[in-house]
Write a structure and sequence with these properties.
By secondary structure, the protein is of the alpha/beta class. It is built from 11 helices and 7 strands. The protein has a 7-stranded mixed beta sheet. It is globular and about 55 Å long. The termini are far apart.
Length: about 270
């Protein structure tokens, strides 16, 4: 694989931004179409994307609002997001380093707040309370989560998952999951929040992968896989490629995806 530039920092996703920008899958058009219709996004109003990563939600939605604000604690993520916005000629996005713990943080008011694959890392009750003063009366919040490769359902995904287990100690694989507070479902948290009116939509589709995309995705997660592998990284990559190609010699792999979207507004 192409080697990313050196990275710094010790946050949850430190050192993953290069891979995150290039190998994290985006969202289907049906998802964006539904949000635009549901919140009547017409080029006015403002969007806040919390835990924006490298802009997989922020940049596509920016064209439907007057201004978008992407917030993430990792400066490398924001640098990659800004690069992608420039490449896409998207000029109405402000990138701000910070975390959900710092809300409201003087960011102003918003029509829509999105959290893509990020809400589970937050103090969810506190965040929703803070957002009550930040979301316009007719606005709302959105959480989007998909299954992706971390929950293997196909033969090739299970083979990759097993290889991680062989190369890493169980404590390393459990560490990331332990950081997320999921004692209550997102729906339960929303039910006791200022945004108790919840609409749930599930988008089902397939996603295509290659060996390189799969390895790149694995290096983009909160598990610091590249660092943990150390000098065993090349051997890991070789074994991943061999295992996947033994299952599907064409090198083309398909993942069934379930994307759950929770849209929450005031009662």
């Amino acid at each position: 694989m192409t080697e990313p530039p050196g990275s710094s920092g010790d946050g949850l996703f430190a050192g993953t931004a290069w891979h995150y920008a290039r190998y994290r899958p985006g969202y289907p058009e049906a998802f964006f179409d539904d949000l635009v219709s549901r919140f009547r996004l017409d080029g006015t109003g403002r969007l806040l994307d919390l835990g924006c990563g490298t802009g997989q939600l922020t940049i596509p939605l920016a064209r439907y609002v007057a201004e978008a604000v992407g917030v993430d604690p990792e400066p490398e993520m924001l640098a990659e997001a800004a690069r992608q916005a420039r490449d896409d000629d998207v000029a109405n996005v402000v990138w701000a380093q910070g975390s959900s713990a710092e809300l409201p943080g003087g960011l102003g008011r918003f029509t829509l707040v999105t959290m893509g694959r990020s809400f589970h890392w937050m103090d969810r009750d506190r965040v929703l309370t803070a957002l009550d003063d930040m979301v316009e009366a007719d606005g709302g919040v959105v959480m989007a989560n998909d299954s992706c490769l971390v929950r293997p359902v196909t033969t090739w995904q299970r083979a990759v998952d097993a290889l991680q287990g062989r190369f890493l100690p169980p404590t390393a694989l459990d560490a990331g999951a332990a950081m997320a507070d999921l004692r209550d479902s997102h729906e339960a948290v929303l039910a006791r929040s200022p945004f108790p009116r919840v609409h749930r939509v599930v988008h089902e589709f397939t996603r295509s992968w290659t060996v390189d995309r799969t390895i790149g995705y694995l290096y983009s997660t909160s598990l610091p896989l590249r660092r943990l592998l150390g000098n065993r990284r090349a051997a890991f990559e070789r074994e991943v490629a061999a295992a996947m190609l033994e299952i599907e010699p064409s090198g083309r792999f398909t993942e069934p995806v379930t994307l759950e979207v929770l849209t929450a507004t005031r009662g």
